[in-house]
Amino acid sequence: MDWSPTSWRSRPAAQQPVYPCPEEVESVVAIMSTLPPLVTSWEIESLKAQLAEAAAGRRFLLQGGDCAESFQECDAAQIASKLKILLQMSLVLVHGTRKRVIRVGRFGGQYAKPRSEDVETRNGVTLPTYRGDLVNAVGFTEAERTPDPQRMLRGYERAALTVNFIRSLIDGGFADLHHPEYWDLGFVKHSPRAAEYQRIVESIGESLRFMEALAGTTVGEINRVDFFTSHDALLLPYEQAQTRRVPRREGWYNLSTHLPWLGMRTSEIDGAHVAYLRGIANPIALKIGPGMTPPQLNELVETLNPGNEPGRLTLIHRLGAGHIDDLLPPLVEAVKKAGSIVLWCCDPMHGNTQRTSVGIKTRNFDDILSELERSFEIHERLGTYLGGVHFELTGENVTECIGGARGLTEADLARDYKSQVDPRLNYEQALEMAMLIARKARRHEGT
Ligand code: PEP
Ligand code: CO
Predict the structure, then answer these.
(1) Can you give the pLDDT at residue 447?
(2) SS3 breakdown of the chain: % helix, strand, coil, rounded to 5?
(3) What is the spatial distance between Cα 391 and Cα 106, in angstroms, rounded to a whole number?
């Protein structure tokens, strides 16, 4: 294949900021490309092998984190609580699916956002839209909104701080946090399913204690948990900067993340993002929105994974609870008919965003659950395997999505709404969601 990390530059690139000084972008890319990478090719290959097993029905993928990380929230407590919720959810999913769970965070570089408008107007003033901390700042002044290439460097450094802290937590005493004694289960009593949730948690506790007694050590030590990173490969100069060859392996690796994904608004077959992603050796994921037709999907699958390599391609559908019954089956049938090996994953967040009567962006817990449940059922009916879930969540108890055991309503949203972009499940909602998936998965296994 005639490809280089800069091949994308000859194609139209959607969702890119207009920098006032393009030369400065080049000098930042040059600096970034000399810095040490955030991840290694052997970790990337290990993830690819695990995703291949998931595609074959033997593992389950849990991918989650913020819609967008922010520079300001790059702090110890928030990173630790995000890791904690993902770890706890993964244990619930292991329990429900009886499969090993691959944990992938939306972190360590999830700083750039696609936007539907290029500009925003307030009180007669028009400025560039906020595209994530990697590009500009959220404040509504010209200085803050002007895209600044130095932010790529700051983002890369913060991604490095995040990944470094996550690696230390995993290597150190963090493993304790997966013990049910450390779970915040206050919400359980508000649910009609309280007894069932309690049973799940108790049974996880028993299995952990059993394994620890057997091995005479703690589970964290027995089985060092793996965490992988992922982000939307949106800002192409940033992605290009760390795309490298490595000794003793073929091809090019994006060493800024393990699993870059292609967002719904940047998946034109002839566009720059597809031109970039097709050439790297990482496993990649592709978001599938309601506008994608079965022939378009097959063309993308063929372009992004011409060798049909297992583990290379994860397809994340995000169709919305109201559309999934109509839209998912023809997409799945087309991929199946083409004989493509893919891992199917459901993002039940992005197709279910709504605005409240006062214009706040939210998502309803029941819609999210419903899209997930429909996904499990549709894949089962069609003989394919739903091998993953993708969430926007946080380890804090924010109030951004409505519903869940505590019954958050629109009136609660004002209390603790922090996201600058999409609404996330909070700690309790995320844990409850995992329990409901576990319940559903168990039922599909017939146990
Ligand atoms: C996202 O994952 O935050 C996102 C923007 O998703 P999508 O490309 O599916 O809309
Ligand atoms: Co989002």
Answers:
(1) 44
(2) 45, 15, 40
(3) 9
Q: Are 290 and 320 in contact (CB under 8 A)?
A: yes
316 lines ligand 1 (CB under 6 A): no
Q: What ligand has the least distance to the C-alpha of 113? A: 1
CA-to-CA separations, 319 to 1, 10, 409, in angstroms, rounded: 33, 31, 24
What is the per-residue pLDDT for 177? 65
Q: Measured between alpha carbons, how far is 148 from 246 in angstroms, rounded to an integer?
A: 30
Cross-strand partners of 228: 104
Looking at residue 262, what DSSP letter applies? E
Residue nearest to atom 4 of ligand 1 (CA): 263
DSSP characters for 220-238? Answer: HHHSPPP-EEEEE---HHH
Query: To which H or E segment does residue 59 belong?
Result: strand 59-65
Asked if residues 425 and 368 have their Cβ atoms less than 8 Å apart, the reply is: yes
- Residue type present at position 60: F
Q: What is the pLDDT of residue 9?
A: 98
Q: Which of the residue ranges 108-117, 172-181, 289-298 would you say has the lowest mean pLDDT?
A: 172-181
- Say if ligand 1 is within 6 A of residue 273 CB: no
User: Using CA atoms, how far apart are residues 433 and 193, in angstroms rounded to an integer?
Assistant: 12
* 347 C-alpha to ligand 1 centroid (Å): 9
Q: Is 350 in the pocket of ligand 1 (CB under 6 A)?
A: yes
Q: Mean pLDDT across the stretch 97-114? A: 97
